[in-house]
């Protein structure tokens, strides 16, 4: 990513495609001058009132042709997204027109922005840190409301403040220990018990934070829930019913589904990737056999399983085999076809897998499906503590673990009675990881990785 801030950059900031409005954005020292060359404001002059929509026309100065009518909005530095001079030109949402506006802007002296370059400038100019930049992209790409809520809070700085708090406490500890080192003869109150106490609290706090990544990952990527069971138990019917769409083929013949099908559903703001697959058991065809193998692999990696049983028939060895095979996975037992005469020996099944929650449903009539949705969340989704911060990125987790590791070293040395110098050195090692976490320490590779995930115009 280009780190010079002298250029004025321009890009379409609304998504590609046709829409009600489209916005072209400029940022940099010449943003206002360039935008005035391509957009003429109608009456009264001097027209540009900061942070107010000014009506006018998109203009090709060379041909003197007016191309569209719209609004210009000027955000003077530093009160803008990037902290630079920023201008937004709101036009009709026509890709042809918006690209033409960008072309005119480039002809007037701007340069096309790279993906994420507006946000990158906000970061370089100190308006946001890297955690907030990540949160902005997470917010834009949020695939559930819960995740959007968390990303919004982090964009506003909640996680950054928490990390700043940790940093402050570490620096205080260092000051305490190092002052003692510099002035060994003076009576400075330092109590190893107190240092240990602060270290233990910090380690606990960082441990909880790192632990939240499991929830974060589920939120960002969604939970994968695989529907499995013998052939013909009603997996595809259940899949369609949960999806509220006739997506998978359903027939009365066993072995209907041969490949797996994945579709997303939302349950209470959580994204669930639901997978329907071939029924377990004796394959009657090589294609089905391959489907079964793939299904098993997928089920092994899923966050949760819905094990479907046909309650209108007797239980069979395959049902038990299946439960045995996925013994250690999170699962729910779904006794399907509750609208028919119930034949299955439920007790025998439940006894074979103690502690596993179950429900009776009819995928055909829809009975109990809402309850099943809720149980899926309760059983498979990691608990969201509303107050706690949540890490959404592995990058963040790795660094929080590293900070915690340095403090644990320091604590161990303290407990082993090592000299203050060594304790201080171990604790100090936490600081670079904090710098990397917030982006205070810049790594080109990390920056490229983060900002290349952004869209152009953000
Ligand atoms: N009465 C009743 N019939 C059901 C129910 N759910 C599914 N069925 C019927 O059971 C048969 C098999 O349904 P599918 O959804 O294709 O079953 P499957 O488990 O996907 O089968 P395979 O893909 O072959 O493994 C169809 O005739 C469905 O209409 C239910 O809740 N009640
Ligand atoms: Mg099926």
Automatic annotation (TrEMBL):
Its main location: cytoplasm. Keywords: Cytoplasm, GTP-binding, Hydrolase, Magnesium, Metal-binding, Nucleotide-binding, Potassium, tRNA processing. It is an enzyme of class 3 (hydrolase). It is found in: Cytoplasm. Mg(2+) binds at residues 236, 257. Homodimer. Heterotetramer of two MnmE and two MnmG subunits. HAMAP family: GTPase_MnmE. This is tRNA modification GTPase MnmE. It comes from Candidatus Saccharicenans subterraneus.
